[in-house]
TrEMBL record:
Its EC number is 3.5.1.2. Belongs to the HisA/HisF family. In the C-terminal section; belongs to the HisA/HisF family. This is Imidazole glycerol phosphate synthase hisHF. Residues 210-229 are annotated as: Disordered. It comes from Rhodofomes roseus. Pathway: Amino-acid biosynthesis; L-histidine biosynthesis; L-histidine from 5-phospho-alpha-D-ribose 1-diphosphate: step 5/9.
Length: 569
């Protein structure tokens, strides 16, 4: 049997390759149009944008061979864009034509009642329980979706409805989660990032003999109206800050308000005892090995993982082979989305060789990242955009920023912006550029801040430098440039265990339509309930409490479930 994967050159397909290796399958990549004739089974793990997928297929001469392959009756498994290219066209790129195998169009999600992209773990519902096929799709499990465009489920059009195998609901929209007819099976979600549920589905499809994969569609249209609430779960993200310790080993570290060095000694010889190990004051705090921790969090049920290369602003990540080796090794152990951040910007090697931010991101994607996270460079890009506007407004992108170039090539869902804001306290009668963003809350810091108001200032280089930009200006700017998600840290709350900065999270959540991940300050499971109930964010991230094993991911999810907040269990 010759089992092939199709990569049109634009997206991160390493996750799927890692998944198949994990499942024990050997495969080849389609490397020329002739390979379609050799394939007896084909998976198309399309990520990115509809237009770039069609362009990528066209430029390699793959579009017609793909059409012929599918028409030949040999098994096809399409993932995400690999599902969407089966349709006639997509609103994402009206000038491109799809394969037209499913007689319907892909449209954009409405953002009137929800954030877009639809990003996270959602359920599936079979259309016709008699029409399940044998792939191992399971209504009791959750799968990972990340997309802004979808095929609406329309039972009034029997020619397209007969393709629909299962549906999902986001907000009040019911859309196609999987299609299945004859030799074609395709999912809008990513099984390769869907943890054990996705592994089970892929193993189920791969293990079937060719004849067992055929499926007969229902003959009658089956109506499906939206329920009061969709099935998208709140995500729990575990974040690992990685840097070299004083011996030159890459370790997971953790700061208190971004200071990752051990505090003053508690013994006369300068060592600190207790906690995970005996430690030395002033040394970089070492909380474990990145790959081992990543594997532990995957096994513990983390919905996503982040690896932040926190000192990469000092040198180009392209020269940091040990860090890239860690990303590769982590991606082989983890089958949920993996975000990699740090140093994503245009750089020049010591020998004068220039590298674009897109190249740096591409290196992370090829190493196994599903999303990349941009911090420092995002602040500078928004500053440049606002300068160009000259009227104090938000301005327009010029197509050259890291966010724009990466989003164009890999899709906006692959670009996260990590924000490192710090509170700036001012008198309550402050008059100045950030007046409309002032928070009149209860300061939790020093005595001198009592009675004051504050705004949130952006920083770069891990909080080392303040910039003349507010968190709201940055959030609005990066959304306009094409970021797909925001990780919202707080330097004030980082490592304190005081809980998320609810004022900050509310402010950013209401400023943008893209998903927001609240970060910094989690000290107990109830803090996650608080941030989801009070702000409506899509995800919450923690580091210290998980690294020190003070709170388990399972504890967080059980507490959320008890509070009636939907989680993936
Ligand atoms: O600026 O594009 O090179 O990206 C650098 C990245 O490294 C940024 O995402 C920045 O947030 C991160 N970073 C830089 N320095 C530090 C540091 O700690 N000294 N880490 C740092 C930021 C914050 C979170 C942390 C949460 C939750 N750490 O990553 O995980 O605050 O912590 P908690 O639950 O323990 O409170 P670029």
């Amino acid at each position: 049997m010759s089992f092939y994967l199709l990569d049109y050159g634009a997206g991160n397909v390493q996750s799927l390759a890692n998944t198949l290796t994990k499942l024990g399958y050997e495969f080849k990549w389609i490397a020329s149009p002739d390979d379609f004739d050799k394939a007896t089974s084909l998976i198309f793990p399309g990520v990115g944008a509809f237009g770039s997928a069609i362009d990528g297929l066209n430029s390699r001469g793959y579009l017609e061979p793909l059409r012929k392959y599918i028409a030949s009756g040999r098994p096809y498994f399409g993932i995400c864009i690999g599902l969407q290219v089966l349709f006639q066209a997509s609103a994402e790129s009206p000038s491109h034509t799809g394969l037209g195998i499913v007689p319907s169009r892909i449209e954009e999600f409405s953002s009137a009642d929800k954030s877009v992209p639809h990003m996270g773990w959602n359920s599936v519902e079979f259309l016709d329980p008699e029409h399940k096929a044998n792939e191992g799709l399971d209504e009791s499990l959750h799968y990972y979706y990340v997309h802004s465009y979808r095929a609406k489920y329309d039972w009034t059009h029997p020619e397209s409805a007969q393709w629909v195998h299962s549906t999902t609901q986001y907000g009040q929209e019911v859309f196609v989660a999987s299609v299945c007819k004859n030799n074609v099976f395709a999912t809008q979600f990513h099984p390769e990032k869907s943890g054990p549920a996705g592994l089970k589905l892929l193993a189920g499809w791969l293990s079937q003999p060719q004849s067992g994969r055929t499926s007969v569609p229902p003959t009658q249209p089956i109506p499906r109206a939206p329920k009061s609430k969709g099935g998208l779960t709140k995500r729990i993200v575990a974040c690992m800050d990685v840097r070299s310790n004083d011996d030159g080993d890459l370790v997971v570290t953790k700061g208190d308000q971004y200071d990752v060095r051990e505090k003053a000694p508690s013994t006369s010889d300068g060592t600190i005892t207790g906690g995970l190990a005996t430690r030395t004051a002033g040394a970089v705090r070492n909380l474990g090995k990145p790959v081992a921790l990543a594997a532990r969090y995957f096994a513990a049920g983390a919905d996503e993982l982040c690896l932040m290369n926190i000192t990469s602003f000092r040198h180009s990540p392209l020269l940091d082979q040990p860090m890239l080796a860690i990303v590769r090794a982590a991606a082989e152990e983890v089958f949920v989305p993996l975000t990699i951040g740090g140093g994503i910007k245009d750089t020049v090697d010591p020998d004068g060789t220039p590298h674009s931010a897109l190249e740096v991101a591409g290196t992370y994607f090829r190493a196994g990242a599903d999303k990349v996270s941009v911090a420092t460079e995002a602040v500078f890009a928004v500053e440049r955009m606002r300068e160009r506007a000259k009227d104090g407004g938000i301005g327009e992108g010029d197509g050259t920023s890291a966010i724009e170039t990466i989003a164009h090539a890999y899709g906006r869902q692959a670009v996260v912006v990590s924000i490192d804001p710090r509170r700036v306290y001012v008198e309550p009668d402050y008059v100045g550029p950030y007046k409309n963003e002032l928070v009149f809350g209860k300061p939790d810091g020093a005595e001198k801040e009592r009675g004051k108001a504050w705004w949130y200032q952006c920083t770069v280089k891990g909080g080392r430098e303040n910039r003349p930009l507010s968190v709201v200006q940055l959030a609005e700017g990066v959304e306009k440039l094409g970021a797909g998600e925001i990780i919202l840290n707080s330097i004030d709350r980082d490592g304190t265990g005081l809980g998320f900065d609810i004022d900050l999270v509310k402010l950013v959540r209401k400023s943008v339509r893209i998903p927001v991940v609240a970060s910094s300050g989690a000290g107990k499971p109830e803090h996650f309930v608080e941030v989801f109930e009070k702000t409506g964010v899509e995800a919450a991230l923690a580091a210290g409490i998980f690294h020190r094993e003070e709170v388990r991911i399972q504890d967080v999810k059980e507490t959320l479930a008890t509070a009636n907040i939907t989680v993936r269990t």
